[in-house]
C-alpha cells in the first residue's frame, strides 16, 4: 500500500512538471511578441544566424510512449490458459536536454541532443478468474539518458520561418539502477539500454534574440527490451520494443 501511495505522488508530480514546462514555453513566446500579436520587426530577424557553423540551445519535450509486444509461442499453452491478452496502453512523460547544432551545408545540419527522459510504460494483463475478466496493470517507470544524432534537412527560409525534416538514430541507457531488493516475480523486468530510429518535422521561427522551433518526432525502438529473467509477466511475451511520439520545444 505504501509503494502505491508513493507512486501516486510521483504521478501527480509528473503531471505538474509537464504543465509547468508547457507554461514556460508559452510564456517565452508571449514575451517575444508585441501585445498586438505581431513580431517586433517586419524585416528578417537574425539574418546571419544560419551562416554560423555551430549553435547551442536547450529543448523541452512532452511525449506519449507505449510498448509494442510480440507474443511468445507458448502463449496458448495450458500453463497460461487463464491469460486472455496483454494490451499496451499509452502513457505520458517529459524530457529535458541540450542542443549542439553543426552546419554542414546551406540546407543540411547535424544535430546532437543529449537529454534526460522520464518514461512510464504500461501493459494490461487480462485474466479470466472465477468467470470474470480481471486486469493486472504493470507500470514500468524509468529514467533514461538518451543521445539522438540527427540530420536536419531545411527548406528555403521565407521571412522568419523555415520548415525542416529530421532523421537519425538514438542510443539510450537507463540512469536509475534496478531495485534488486524487491520481488522480481511481481513486476515486468526490462533491459537498461535501447537503440531507436527517429524521424520528424518542425518549423524554425526566428525571433529578434533567439530561434524557436516546435518539432514532432517519432521514435521506433530497434532492441528487444524484455529482460532475460523469466517470471509470470515475461513468460507470455517474446519481444518488447518501445515506441514514442514527442512534441519538442527547441530554443537556440
TrEMBL record:
Protein name: Porin family protein
Stretches assigned to the Outer membrane protein beta-barrel domain: 47-226
Domain of life: Bacteria
Keyword Signal: yes
InterPro entries in UniProt: Beta-barrel_OMP_2
Keywords from the named record: Signal
Protein species of origin: Roseihalotalea indica
Organism classification: Bacteria, Pseudomonadati, Bacteroidota, Cytophagia, Cytophagales
Signal peptide as annotated in the record: 1-32
Amino acid at each position: 500500500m505504501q509503494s502505491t501511495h508513493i507512486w501516486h505522488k510521483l504521478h501527480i508530480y509528473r503531471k505538474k512538471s509537464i504543465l509547468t514546462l508547457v507554461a514556460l514555453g508559452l510564456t517565452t513566446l508571449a514575451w517575444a511578441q508585441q501585445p498586438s500579436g505581431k513580431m517586433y520587426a517586419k524585416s528578417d530577424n537574425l539574418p546571419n544566424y544560419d551562416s554560423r557553423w555551430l549553435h547551442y540551445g536547450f529543448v523541452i519535450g512532452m511525449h506519449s510512449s507505449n510498448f509494442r509486444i510480440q507474443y511468445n509461442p507458448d502463449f496458448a499453452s495450458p500453463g497460461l490458459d487463464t491469460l486472455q491478452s496483454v494490451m499496451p496502453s499509452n502513457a505520458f512523460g517529459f524530457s529535458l536536454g541540450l542542443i549542439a547544432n553543426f552546419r554542414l551545408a546551406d540546407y543540411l545540419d547535424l544535430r546532437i541532443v543529449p537529454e534526460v527522459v522520464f518514461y512510464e510504460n504500461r501493459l494490461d494483463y487480462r485474466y479470466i478468474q472465477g468467470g470474470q475478466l480481471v486486469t493486472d496493470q504493470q507500470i514500468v517507470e524509468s529514467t533514461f539518458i538518451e543521445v539522438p544524432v540527427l540530420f536536419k534537412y531545411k527548406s528555403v527560409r521565407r521571412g522568419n520561418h523555415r520548415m525542416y525534416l529530421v532523421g537519425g538514430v538514438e542510443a539510450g541507457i537507463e540512469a536509475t539502477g534496478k531495485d534488486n531488493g524487491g520481488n522480481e516475480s511481481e513486476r515486468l523486468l526490462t533491459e537498461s539500454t535501447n537503440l531507436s530510429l527517429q524521424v520528424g518535422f518542425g518549423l524554425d521561427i526566428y525571433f529578434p534574440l533567439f530561434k524557436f522551433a516546435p518539432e514532432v518526432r517519432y521514435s521506433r525502438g530497434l532492441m528487444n527490451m524484455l529482460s532475460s529473467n523469466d517470471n509470470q509477466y515475461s513468460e507470455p511475451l517474446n519481444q518488447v520494443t518501445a515506441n514514442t511520439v514527442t512534441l519538442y520545444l527547441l530554443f537556440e
